[in-house]
Amino acid sequence: MSRLRRMAAPLVLAVGGGLFAAAPAAEAAPAACDTTSTPYTYVVTYQPGTRESAVDRELAAKCGTKVAYYAEIGVAIASSRTADFQQKIGVYRAYSGAKDVASQGGAAAARSRGAVRTLEDTRSVAAAGDLAAQQWDMKAIHASEANKIYQGSRAVTVGVLDSGIEATHPALRNAVDARSSAGCVTGAPDLSPASWAPTTSDHGTHVAGTIAGKDPAAGFTGVAPGVRLASVKVINDEGYIFPESAVCGFVWAARHGFAVTNNSYYIDPGLFYCPKQPGDAAAFEAVRRAIDFSTRRGVLNVAAAGNDSLDLTNQTTDKNRPHPVDSSCAILPGMADGVVTVSSVGYAGTKSGFSNYGRIDVTAPGGDFGQTPPEGAGPACPLSTVVGGQYGEKCGTSMAAPHAAGVAALIASRHRGIAPRLLAQLLESEADVVKCAATEPACTGPAKNNTFYGHGLVDALDAVR
Questions:
Q1: Torsions phi, psi of 148, nearest 5?
Q2: Residue 82: phi, psi to the nearest 5?
């Protein structure tokens, strides 16, 4: 989660309902729109099913240009140089994450991103010998045993919504499906290979290896090496993921039949988005609709809980932005309805110090520098693929989420066409119980559903048996 709001360090999100308006009938274009100021991209909500021609007319009349329009969910992506574009459209219908970052309030978001990047920095690991011996994370969820029985189906695709995947990596070149991959950074899908390849970050490549990597020469294997991966790039070169990118990514997953998506990030410049507040309402509703659309189309979305050591159910402020937070607010996409939220554990099997908690579905290995493995057992953080055909370790809930996504892909492979809700139930019911320890006073709830570990540690072996 570097600046890249990856969930391998600090994270964040939100939602709302019914905040849309049909575009007005034809309006005369303004006499003079700003053509010199910095352009910003906005999500704009409409009544689902609104005709694209009506959207075009309203945007043009209010000094905006359409970038994309997702009619199924009534969300447009628009660009405008006009400073008051949001006011022209309506402060509950339009929002620009990039403009928010550029404002005074964006400074805290930038610092938070930097902290995430520090946590998720790659530490290189030599690929000499058998890397399997260093994959304690795979042993913890019984992935090595599961791989001997079943490695997943090529008919199942997992979308990696992240910073791009290095498709030429030895462990990934047989897994990445170029035809299902796209760049979504602008809010509109771009099918060119360059648009979904990594540029400034190896975060997405690391996540991809955990899900489905396989390199016999190096002895490296991910959770479900038999499934396909789609690289859906939603994180820009500055490390930010804005609402329009996420909307594009979820809609792309829905339209292309993905069984699972992994989302190791939080939407910038949150943390929290609040459905009752100006600006936030549009972002929350746009992302909520996109997630709901993908779920209705058969996609199970898995997301990292975040790396701020926060109780997600008990927050009143947002360290990234100066606005009040209440129980309706959420870190997106992790706290959105229908999304499987994953916390992180370290080598000892207890919650990672950085992991958020409170609203957790399952847990998985994400590492912890305070839980150091014995000599020869591997690094403190999960080992996986990184750019340059290499391997490295990263810590964070960003690393925990793909373990859960990989197990979900194994279940989806065994039960083709399974509904997302049932897939999530199986993922949870087959998890290994992790009880709250006496030394964890903040951990509350029963053994099979508590605030630190949710329904338990995901189990790949049970998924294939």
A1: -75, -20
A2: -75, 125
